[in-house]
Write a structure and sequence with these properties.
4-stranded antiparallel beta sheet, single chain, alpha+beta, 542 residues, 5-stranded antiparallel beta sheet, 11 strands
């Protein structure tokens, strides 16, 4: 019964905080509908067997856009898998948002129960679900990637603790998959939480192991390497081919305007029409302050093993607050911080770390009592956040035929495009100069082919923005497309006669290498999983 009660509470609270998702239709947020459009694009690309998905042919008025080359893809791979049951685009995205809440709650419960106690796990879960910034992500920002990263954080920390406690192949595989999944789910959140996760690994090792250096070299480095390898197909092109898009030249926002003032942590507007709310929650901050004070006024002799975790959590929170505040402005000019668009992104790992600390409230009687009062207060204070601005009800066709880029400033536009497309073309291929007839045109997100009957040398304009990897042949002979007029579109010079034109979006060298690394990583995981299965079978026989 004692095990069932926390689960029942979690299910009930989870349902209360996700209730708007169970109602018909969707609702307006900053990015929520973009997620639906991106899912429609992912479906298109997977139907075309463009694996991994990189180039979105339909977006940008049909001229193409390297969306999943630079935008976290895992939520949309999962969405494409879920949507195979024909439940619709909007419903699929809603399922992912709801799952992010329940999975994060269960993960925090297991983490808290492992390190502290069952009640500590329950407190951490409730504080986590009732975090104001989490609710801002759900109902104001509509950030699918960040919402799902909230779900991965506690599981990554929990499995890491288990791995240090008792290293085996199973936890090694799970740890690597969780790290890789976090990078693929929201690479910015992964970047920001990574040093604090490394700190957590060190703290756990410090408390459980004697030979810390050998343990790090033998167990941690292979796990990190394998986790990064799984995500290499995405993260390496992001790093090495970012130079091809506007994001490498023009920042999305002025960093100086997106720091969080200390007062905003306690009270800031919900921000439906602009900058989101940065509230961390009064009850949450009081809980953290309570733990901080208890370090000085409480004897920790009987709970010595928890002290290092509380100190780690408090230090991490202080560092995250520093980097989200303008005091750290001088550091944001340098990598890796310069890779992050907004300093307030630190609120994502900060929200997790605050909730993580609350799992230690029950270790003393007075903090346990006050912690119980504070979580009740937190729930009552954040329930008003479970509301939506405007309800919308659109058919899937609306999202499947959207011509936008799904990025705020078209920052993934190739740098050679000086004149952005403003409307959809009439034909996918056109005769720009000369006399020619075009026929048998076929195209999808990764290839195009057509037949040209030309009376003289002609120039054919292909209404696809060039991106490295596009390769063309004329009657089987490789040719290089040319660009012109600042529109970034590809053009082919065709000789007189009948010419069969074939174009394919291939891989650059870095994409081939990154794909290979990911395949090797997944292969290692597969063979390790198979070995675990057969070892278990052999043990059962004997």
């Amino acid at each position: 019964m004692r095990r069932i009660i926390p689960i029942v509470i979690l299910l009930f609270i989870g349902f209360v905080y996700t209730f708007p998702f169970f109602q018909a239709g969707f609702f307006e947020t900053h990015d929520g509908e973009w997620a639906i459009i991106r899912l429609a694009e992912m479906q298109r690309e997977l139907r075309d067997f463009q694996i991994p998905a990189r180039w979105s042919d339909y977006l940008n008025h049909g001229y193409g856009y390297p969306l999943f080359q630079f935008t976290y893809p895992l939520p949309f791979y999962l969405g494409a898998l879920i949507s195979l049951s024909n439940i619709g685009l909007t419903t699929t995205i809603k399922i992912l948002f709801v799952a992010s809440v329940f999975l994060s709650g269960v993960g925090m419960y297991f983490l808290g129960r492992k390190i502290s106690s069952s009640f500590g796990g329950l407190l951490g879960t409730l504080f986590y679900i009732a975090s104001p910034f989490r609710l801002t992500d759900l109902y104001v920002r509509g950030s699918l990637g960040e919402s799902l990263s909230f779900a991965i954080f506690p599981w990554l920390f929990y499995v890491s603790y288990r791995y240090i406690e008792r290293p085996d192949r199973k936890t090694f595989i799970l740890g690597a998959l969780l790290l890789g999944s976090l990078i693929l789910t929201h690479n910015v959140s992964a970047l920001l939480v990574f040093p604090f996760w490394i700190g957590f690994l060190y703290v756990v090792t410090l408390s459980l192991r004697k030979n810390k250096m050998m343990y790090t070299l033998k167990y941690f480095l292979p796990l990190i390497f394998l986790g990064v390898s799984v995500s290499a197909f995405f993260i390496l092109p992001v790093l090495f081919e970012k130079k091809f898009v506007l994001l490498s030249q023009i920042p999305i926002a002025d960093t100086a305007r997106h720091f969080v003032a200390f007062a905003d942590f306690l009270n800031s507007a919900r921000g439906y029409n602009g900058i989101p709310s940065f509230q961390l929650g009064l009850a949450h901050l009081v809980a953290v302050s309570l733990l901080f004070i208890s370090l000085f006024f409480t004897s920790w002799t009987k709970v010595k093993k928890y002290r290092i975790f509380v100190l780690y959590g408090l230090f991490s929170i202080a560092v995250m607050i520093f980097f989200s505040n303008s005091f750290s402005y001088f550091l944001w000019k340098y990598p890796p911080l310069s890779w992050v668009d907004f300093p307030w992104r630190f609120l994502t790992p900060l929200t997790f770390m605050i909730s993580f600390l609350t799992i230690f409230l029950p270790i003393r009687t007075f903090t346990k009592i006050l912690g119980t009062f504070l979580i009740v207060l937190a729930i009552f204070m954040t329930l008003p956040y479970v509301s939506v601005q405007n309800r919308i009800n659109r058919e899937d066709s609306y999202y499947q035929t959207n011509d936008a880029t799904t990025t705020s400033a078209d920052e993934l536009m190739p740098i050679w495009v000086r004149q952005k497309p403003e409307k959809r073309y009439d034909e996918k291929v056109e005769v720009e100069t000369g006399f020619a007839t075009l026929s048998n045109t076929f195209f999808n997100s990764k290839q195009i082919s057509f037949l040209v009957e030309s009376q003289e040398q002609s120039v054919i304009k292909v209404n696809i923005i060039y991106f490295p990897g596009w390769e063309f042949t004329l009657n089987g002979v490789p040719v290089l497309p040319t660009l012109g007029n600042g529109d970034g579109l590809m053009r082919l010079t065709i000789p007189a006669g009948i010419t069969k034109v074939d174009g394919v979006l291939g891989n650059t060298f870095i994409r081939m290498v990154s794909n290979f690394i990911s395949l090797v990583g997944l292969g290692v995981i597969f063979f390790m999983a198979v070995s675990i299965f057969f070892i278990k079978k052999n043990h059962e026989k004997h």
